[in-house]
Amino acid sequence: MLSTVNTLQIKRLLLTFSLVVVGALGTALWAQHDHDHSGEDHSGHDHAQHDDHSGHDHSGHDGHDHHDDHSGHDHSGADHSGHDHGSHDGGSHGGHAANACGHHHDPSIFDAGGTAFHHIADANVYSIGPFSIPLPCIVYAPNHEGWSFFLSSAFKIHGAHGDGSQSVGPYVLNGGTVMRVKDGQGFPKTEGNVQLASDPHDHIFSHNEEDGLAYMSFNGKCYELERKSTADFGLFGGGITSFYDFSLTKNVVAMLLVSLFLMLMFFSIARAYRDRDGQAPSGLQGFIEPIFVFIQDEVAKPFLGHYWERYLPFLMSIFFFILGLNLFGQIPFFGGANATGNLALTMALAVIAALVVNFSGNKHYWEHIFWMPGVPAWVKTILTPVELLGVFIKPLTLMLRLFANITAGHMVMVIFVGLIFVFGGTQGANPPASLGAAAASTILTLFMMAIELLVAFLQAFVFTILTASYLSAAKEEAHH
Amino acid sequence: MIFLADFSPIKPDFGLLFWSSLIFLIFWFMMSRYAFGPIRDALKKRESDIQDALDEAKRAKEEMTALQSKNEELLAQAREERSNILKEAKEAKDSIVREAKEKAKEEAQKIVDNAQRDIEAQKNAALLEVKNQAANMALEVAEKIIRKQLTGDGEQEKFANSLVDEIKLN
Asked: What is the C-alpha separation between A419 and A448, in angstroms, rounded?
């Protein structure tokens, strides 16, 4: 058994590596593209004109000093050599490109990275094609408004990007995500729902690539927006902000739908097992049974020995929960909820798995961590911190592996589709190039979808088998 | 940070953390209780049922083989018995026939003996009768002769007297 597990692990590692390479290539492609854009976009700008573009107060946040040494978003100057920005030129707030924040939006330039990030992000609205299904928003701003409950339709969403043309108190909807206008900027948040733009096509939200912050232009003034609090402790650019978002977001809805679907499916299968006792499996039961037996015989039994029965439901829950969400995220034209590609979900699963593993740990397991038997004392002083670190690294890798694989796959997919607009222009500027890119993109996307289908099963299996192996280590009896 | 645009999926927000944990825990509980647990037990039961059925079949086969060999043994025994019975019957028949023959011979002998004895007796009786008859006839003849002679000669008278003497002597 041991040798089969080893070859399996090697194969899995190879596949994971190749996927990471594919993902990295995709990311590099996007980064290269984006970099090129910023390069040509900002060439020949007048750095000196920076100061007069923004009337708003930046003193509230640090990091704004990036502005001083970068010209990236000062487009109000007159000199836009080589670009057709004439109609958006300085001072005119009525246009739909230049706004009070001085951030240009050029609809003729396709932002592949931004598009990819937008498509894999969680959202407070469920967009299927041109339709936006509003979702319940539950936001909590301690020391401010407290709890607020409303439907995201209160933002008066327009377009497929999920921008809301109305505010709800201090909250606005930017790219499908609820954000809060930072306090102390004089935003009329107590006036209820404020109409943010007269023309729904106005480009009121912008993202500053230098400070990573989101801005909103309203009434000729630029407001800084705050994103919801995140549990990354600033590691990935997030952190605790003024509010928490406990909304039933797109990913939550996807989880609910998938869980409900799986529950109904498996309840009927369980009923079939009861009603058809002593008969051969049929229909759905016969379809699921090989998968079930595979996890049971290849994962639970070899790793957990005589404990397999106790942990089988947990392993099965993990496997089918992840598999269901992986597959759900791949259904085309169905909103593409990237639930398993969101660190919050993989973190929740990894933490639960870690809790189950460590609460199952026997004396032998803890002894191995804190006081490894059979090694000299000085080795123990090195080993104990390493083993203790391992307790946290194991769930960390579980969390990152699933997240990275699914997110990379989705991102590459969006970028492959985005090639059409990279080469052909956003508004059909170059039809032959669009068609050529579309043909190439179709083949690439088809290939990627096939890989993602494989990855959906593979990553669900990998998460399950690794959890089982950690459990087996926690349950191992002393035998030396 | 390395991300230029807002790469939000890598920032785990508290809402999604909360809902993911809650939904997964409910999912785990419900599935363990109503789906995976019962399915696991049903599969285990079926496995043991199949094993039992296989064992049962094996046992039945063994039993059948044992039964068959026993049957064969019985059959051989029966065959032997039959041949024994046949042999005995033949012997019995032979002895009966032999006995019967002997008896018949004996009987026949007896009949023949009886017949011979009868014949002897009859012969003797017949001879006696013939003797008597002959004696009677001779007597008659002699009477007649005597009667005629007695009427004549003295010598004959004398002879007759001697005869009478002779008879008296007898």
From this structure: 14
Residue in the block written with tokens 């944990």? B21
Q: Where are the alpha helices (DSSP H) in A329-376?
A: 343-360, 363-370
| CA dist., res. A440 & res. B128, Å (int) | 158
* Segment (H or E) for A273: helix A250-275
Q: Where are the domains of chain A?
A: 2-32+251-475, 63-108+123-248
Alpha helices, DSSP H, located in A276-375 = 283-294, 301-304, 308-328, 343-360, 363-370
Q: Can you say how many angstroms the Cα of residue A302 is from the centroid of all Cα atoms in its chain?
A: 34
Interface test with B, best of A273, A284, A403 (most B CBs within 10 A): A273
Q: DSSP character for A182? A: P
Q: Tell me the shortest Cα–Cα distance from A330 to chain B, in angstroms.
A: 16
Closest partner CB to A273 (pick from B5, B16, B38): B38
Q: What is the largest CA-CA distance in chain A?
A: 84
* Distance between B53 CA and the closest CA of chain A, angstroms: 11
Show the tokens assigned to A266: 């498996």
Q: Rounded to a whole number, what is the distance in Å from the CA of A138 to chain B's nearest CA?
A: 9
- Degrees (nearest 5) of the Cα angle B161, B162, B163? 90
Tokens of B169: 């002597």
Pairing relationship of beta strands A244-245 and A136-141 according to DSSP bridges: antiparallel
| ipTM for the complex shown | 0.78
**A356 in B contact zone (CB under 8 Å):** no
Q: Which residues of chain A have pLDDT under 50?
A: 1-5, 22, 24-97
Residues of B in contact with A278 (CB under 8 A): 46, 49
Helix residue ranges, H only, chain B: 14-31, 37-150, 154-169
CB A231 to CB B26 under 8 A? no
Chain A residue with minimum CA distance to B41: A309
Q: How far is CA A353 from the centre of its chain?
A: 21
Let me know: does A163 contact A175? Beta carbons within 8 Å.
yes
What residues contact residue A202 under an 8 Å CB cut-off, 6+ apart? A96, A99, A165
Render pLDDT for B9-62 as a digit per residue (tens, 0 to 9). Answer: 888 999 999 999 999 999 999 999 999 999 999 999 999 999 999 999 999 999
Task: Count the residues in chain A.
Answer: 480
Question: Mutate which of B13, B31, B51 to disrupt the A interface (most A C-beta within 10 Å)?
Answer: B13
